From TrEMBL:
Pfam families: Epimerase. It comes from the Bacteria. Gene3D superfamilies: NAD(P)-binding Rossmann-like Domain. InterPro entries: Epimerase_deHydtase, NAD(P)-bd_dom_sf, NAD(P)-dependent_oxidoreduct. SUPFAM superfamilies: NAD(P)-binding Rossmann-fold domains. This is NAD-dependent epimerase/dehydratase family protein. Residues 4-203 form the NAD-dependent epimerase/dehydratase domain. PANTHER family: NAD(P)-BINDING DOMAIN-CONTAINING PROTEIN-RELATED, PROTEIN YEEZ.
């Protein structure tokens, strides 16, 4: 194994995949638009995948491994058309969002999928991933690995979701923290570097097939308690009912004015996918506590009270706590 091409490599997960391969002593080339650097030691091939000749610079040679993270089925199909004959093995990073049902716990890789988007149809994340998976399987056959991560967490997370909790507990210190009801809610997360190491591992093994890359299923209550401990919080924890949060326009899951990882009650399957295939294919999960600790270190370096892409501002949180009499 000497030459790896990453279609991407300047983003979050794909950057960590580039690191993992580089640390394995392999020559890594990242193909991206050039606005962000490739990781140290990797070569950047500048190209825009919207352009017809996007792969010209990397198509004149063979690759031991090609990794693609794109969610654009047109980009994925064009890359397969240009590069499939050049690749000994291909790993496509998909998502558990390909599954048709979010209400069924315990789904494995054989569960029903959404219908794929077709050219000209409006883009829809999960359906686009199904279409992209199909292009990779059709072009690569048994040289393809399809990896379906669930919620990816850890240092550098651009979505600011998971880090909200450990960061908020640390910021609040002895003050109160607002949490959602946790009865019946689960949490299933995977550290970004566990996904990256797995992608590199199956590439090295030339493993073929489709696999969920998800953590062990835990409860949301356990995750929040872990975040509280790691954040060193000693204040009160105030639970807001779903009705209170909805009435006060607090969003589920992600984004501004949200409580991250809180999900509607009709999605009990979304954070409860099977992960035995991940273990069988050589995947290793670090303890949640370790991920929380390194996430907090990253959150501290980025600023606990910075503007975030996900969660409540401390000001909004205190206003809601005030309404609850806390
Ligand atoms: N976050 C989660 O919890 C989660 C869960 C399940 C699955 N996933 C999947 O995990 C993957 C995340 O990968 P990531 O974090 O590396 O994504 P990302 O940060 O969005 O990076 C995308 C990469 O593709 C490159 N790129 C985008 N548009 C391009 C274009 N037109 N031409 C050339 N290059 C282009 C970007 O480079 P430039 O912008 O520099 O050009 C970057 O290197 C995705 O497949 C996502 O669907 C994520």
């Amino acid at each position: 194994m000497t030459d790896v091409l990453i279609l991407g490599g300047t983003g979050w997960l794909s950057g960590r995949v580039a690191h993992a391969w580089r640390d394995a002593g392999v020559a890594v080339t990242c193909l991206a638009r050039g606005g962000r650097p490739a990781p140290d030691g990797a070569t950047l091939a500048v190209a825009d995948r919207d352009a017809p000749d996007a792969y010209a610079e990397v198509a004149d040679r063979d690759w031991d491994e090609i990794v693609d993270v794109s969610s654009n089925p047109g980009h994925v199909a064009a890359a397969v058309a240009a590069l499939a004959t050049r690749a000994a093995h291909w790993t496509y990073v998909s998502s558990v969002s390909v599954y048709a049902r979010a209400d069924v716990p315990g789904q494995d890789e054989t569960a029903e999928l959404l219908t794929p988007t077709v050219a000209g149809e409006e883009s829809e994340y999960g359906r686009d991933k199904v279409a992209a998976e199909g292009a990779v399987r059709a072009g690569l056959g048994d040289r393809a690995a399809i990896v379906r991560p669930g919620l990816i967490v850890g240092p550098g997370d651009p979505t600011d979701r998971f880090g909200y909790w450990v960061s908020r507990f640390a910021l609040a210190g002895k003050g109160p923290v607002l949490v959602p009801e946790t009865d019946g809610h689960h949490a299933q997360v995977i550290d970004v570097d566990d996904v990256a190491a797995f992608v590199a591992r199956i590439g090295a093994d030339r493993w073929s097939g489709t696999v969920n890359a998800v953590g062990d299923v835990g409860t949301l209550a356990e995750l929040l308690e872990g975040a509280r401990e790691v954040g060193g919080h000693s204040g009160t924890v105030v639970t807001a009912s779903d009705g209170f949060l909805i009435d006060h326009e607090v969003a589920y899951w992600s984004g501004p004015r949200s409580l991250p990882l809180w999900l509607p009650a009709d999605m009990p399957g979304f954070m409860r996918h099977r992960n035995d295939g991940f273990g069988r294919a050589g995947g290793v999960l670090r303890p949640l506590r370790e991920t929380l600790e390194r996430t907090l270190a990253d959150e501290r370096s980025r600023g606990l009270d910075r503007a975030r892409r996900a969660g409540l501002t401390r000001e909004d949180e205190l206003a809601l706590l005030g309404e609850l009499g806390a």
